[in-house]
Amino acid sequence: MNFAKNVGEALEVTDTNNYYAFGMNHIGGMKSLLGGYQNYKYNGKELQENGMYDYGARMYMPDIGRWGVVDPLLEKYRRHSPDNYAVNNPIMFIDPDGRDIKFGDNVYSYEKNRDYSKIKNEFDRNTYEALDYLYSTGALNVTIGEGEGAKTVNIMDEMINDKKNTFTINEQTKSGEKNEYDPNTKSVKFNPKEAVRFRKDGAKSTLEEGNIGYNSPSSRLGHEVIHGYNHLFDSKYGERRRNDYSTKSEKSIFTPDGANLRFKNEEEEFTTTNLGNQMNKALTEDQRTNYGIIPYPVGSVKSIKEVKPPTTPTP
To answer: How far apart, in whole angstroms, are the C-alpha atoms of residue 93 and residue 167?
Structure first.
């Protein structure tokens, strides 16, 4: 079931689905009994009028568990039929678009219950875990725009389907530094060992109860992936990035001790307070209203619990 708050702030059912393993909906055929009808269903894909799901690279037929065309990467999977969905095992695997997800030198695809202990490189292991988390939660399925012009986008799938550009995730090796997206190299720096804390309301003191928020390393990676998506797919990215806030007093966000936590430009504000907060809501993490963050060490990519450095015993 999908839920949303109505005008009275009460939860109501917006859509109901009950799937067989390969995606066939067995509640009222392809329609809900409770709530309204929503197009985005199995694995967050859009259901077409012909009963197929649009996966980007291919159309999928859930009634027979097969693609409409063969796998474009069929030479890599010779032991499996090129028409099979998720190597014929939808309980363990998800094929997000009929192609591969690529980051850095790795080929990524979502795998339920992935054994991370088999990934020897620590950064690769942490990055796989963060991407799995973002994908499995649907955190990067966001709504862009408002009203009739609004559209729902699966950012990870859009990045995967892009045949012209390669989005690279590199390790941020400097502690306490910001993760950042570089449009010149289409790459992001990611520190999987640091979360961030921040003021939920920049104009209030950190001593005020409930005013400190936290975001995990996975949330921080998702934030930079959104920047990458905006750069590669949104024609307004350059305009927002050039809209510098450094001289705009109306954009100032002053703390009680006089520090200015304003965003550096419109792109940062849009990514953080709009798309980024949609992601944080899906991750059940705190939402941000300003640009002030303080990185701190944590034990895993999904954690916000601070890890204290070991103390050196006194001789």
So the answer is: 23
